[in-house]
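Input chain follows. Return structure tokens only.
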Amino acid sequence: MKPKVWLLMSLIALGITACEYDDSALKADVNDLKDRITALEEQVNQMNEDIVSLQDIIHALNQNISISQVEQTDEGYILHLTDGTSINLYNGKEGSSGANAPIIGIAQENGIYYWTLTTDEKTTWLTDEAGNKLPVSGASGITPLLSIDEKGYWTVSYDNGKTYEQLTDANGNPVQAVGKDGADGTDGKPGTPGTPGNDGDSFFQNVTQDNEKVTLILSNGTIINIPKVKPFGITFQQTTNIPLGKEGITLSYTITGADADTQVRAFVSKGDLEVTLSEKNIFVKPKSNASVNGSEVIVLLFNKEKTITTLLTFIDAPKDVNTDGSTEDYKVEEGTWDE
């Protein structure tokens, strides 16, 4: 009986040994997944900052807030706004061109900006459970926050990070951030490792500026123009040696960089003149037939923060000068004044 017992035990031991397999590759794959998720955390944080920046930009547009300064940095741009706040735009890490890379963006419909999601080169609206589009700004505006779950899929939160759900593409499939599923193991053999997923693309495709505006082109093609604030100042067609006849002259002016507290005042500092101020115009007329050579009018443009002074000087007008200052044989000297 003993030889049979030892034979049985040997067979059992052999069976147990046969069932064992080397799972080191599977463990390495799991560890690699964790490492890639950790490596993407910084990028996810930056993407969430870009989302907040987009929301701040739309809020600024809705509130008629302009850009006072554009500062370029190694990481991107800083937009300094006229309300004292600033917005950071990051160059971002350019993702691969794979179809799985999600892009959060915005698009406008009926004058309102809504959040969008682009996957597989297809752009859809981000919607709530009832299928309603999610506005970017306003009383009902929300801030979607991105994350990656433990399985390596992109997730999104619509309640400031309290809960997350998986992002889905246009076909309703979850969007992979790290790795694709490997083949299932069979007959005690480990499955094949998954392949790396695609990093998310930069939100801002291009940032340009001119004297009037800053133009943002988002990765989904949406173009946003943010106006620049114009320097605080007042401009006249001419400020020195203005020909003034007995009928008087109307001087038009243009104000830039004005706010609700901006005011204009004008008074005579030298000479016997009469000054009447109206919106966008100053009417100046001699009080007597005396020469107006050397006469002066001071125009003040001011608000709570700044005061700009413009000095207007006058000379006797030739007889053929019209009341609006135009003449055929007298060339009007052009001049401007601003800060």
